[in-house]
Amino acid sequence: MIRKATAHWRGTGRDGDGDLTTDSGVLSQTPYSFKTRFEDTPGTNPEELLAAAHAGCFTMALAFQLQQAGFDPESLETQAAVSLEADPAGGFKITRSALTLTAKVPGLDEAKFDELAGNAEKGCPLSKVINAEITLTKTLL
């Protein structure tokens, strides 16, 4: 399976701008720029997209973990907060992806919840490629 996206950029790093398009069409010439990345201008940025991807990947992995264990989740909601910081070696680097999960799963006890959520965090394909600290805070309702 191969998934594709295209970035198109015009101009310099600080003053230029670009757009992102995915083959699925979910993103279609979605604007991004220095201002959408480092300020609050509308548009997206690579870290936001990584956060969305990590939250989605982890949540789907947990849904499969729960299903295999015989649980039917009522709701799973995950926020991923990706940190971009200055790199002492130069430039910037992603240093952390902090996952915050709220789950409502009838019949699931806390110990099994901890086990399955931990398995999902480690087993999610994006967790396996993110070269940064990954944390998981979870609440079972």
Tell me about this structure.
The protein has about 140 residues and is α+β, with helices and mostly antiparallel strands. It has two domains: about 5-40, no CATH class; about 45-140, 2-Layer Sandwich (GMP Synthetase, Chain A, domain 3), CATH 3.30.300.20. It is built from four helices and six strands. Helix 2 (about 45-70) crosses helix 3 (about 110-125). The longest helix has 23 residues, at about 45-70. It is elongated.
Primary descriptors:
alpha+beta; GMP Synthetase, Chain A, domain 3; 2 domains; 3-stranded mixed β-sheet; 4 helices; 6 strands
* Rg (CA only): 17 Å
Task: State the secondary-structure class.
Answer: alpha+beta
Query: Class of the largest domain in CATH?
Result: Alpha Beta
Per DSSP, what share of the residues sits in E-state strands of 2 or more residues? 25-35%
Pfam families: OsmC
Protein name: OsmC family peroxiredoxin
GO biological process, one term: response to oxidative stress
Organism: Caulobacter mirabilis
Task: Give the SSE layout.
Elements: E1 5-10, E2 17-22, E3 30-33, H1 34-38, H2 46-68, E4 75-86, E5 92-104, H3 110-123, H4 125-129, E6 133-140
Parallel strand pairs: 5-6
Antiparallel strand pairs: 1-2, 2-3, 4-5
Helix pairs in contact: 2-3
